[in-house]
Amino acid sequence: MAKLSKDYLIETPMLDFNHPQIQTLIEQRRWRNLSSFDAVGAIYSYVRDEIYFGYNADDCLSASQVLNDGYGQCNTKGTLLIALLRAVGIPARLHGFTIYNDLQRGAIPHFLFYFAPERIIHSWVEVYQDDRWINLEGYIIDKPYLRQVQKRFASQCEGFSGFGIATKCLAEPSVDWHGKDTYIQSEGIADDFGIYAQPDDFYKHYGSNLSGVKKILFRYLLRHIMNINVKRIRSLGSDLLYEDTPM
Fold first, then answer.
1. Helix (H, G, I), strand (E, B), or coil: what is residue 34?
2. What is the set of domains in the chain, with CATH numbers?
3. Model's pTM, two decimal places?
4. Collapsing DSSP states into helix, strand and coil, what is residue 30?
5. What's the pLDDT tens digit per position in 100-147?
6. How far is CA 247 from CA 108, 115, 156, 158, 187, in A?
């Protein structure tokens, strides 16, 4: 491994990987006993499938708070993923973007879409393996939720966008760890804000998606409605996928 800055391994207020809850998880899963390649795969799969897709109170939650919630979206699940990777000695960093809000249509019920900004703060994780940085974005959508969307729309293999997904081929998205880039929302990217060693710095600079009254409504009411909708899609599948047709 080439020599890297220690910035890609340090703990920060958001990346609080020495929190007892995070350390207990790592010990229980024995991730430190794995090779670097296998540890990335195991941690990646955990964040993708055991931390369900859903909407947290804020993008700036610490990793331990995301773990305690048990669900998250691109930004919050990314914070947890970076923290877990660094906790076992694997360098990781954040790449910041915005995405067009259309890809959230369906996951966000149509009657709440007024509250969504046109461009939404987005990020993915970059992990250092085999002397190169690998892009990880496929952890955002858990497999149970993805399978339900696939059941309804898998025949649309080109340019699928909706239900929190933006991919070239819904039937076979590149979401599994094979030592290569993984993506699930990359086809919806609008702006590229570049690389940040620490998510704390990224969110300090770009803030969160909402402000004022909309932010308060989102935190205490709207996100709970959105999470109910996501849970229903995950459990009931195609019966719920009728309000919005993906592009």
1. coil
2. 6-235 (3.10.620.30)
3. 0.94
4. coil
5. 999 999 999 988 877 788 899 999 999 999 999 999 999 999 999 999
6. 15, 20, 9, 10, 12
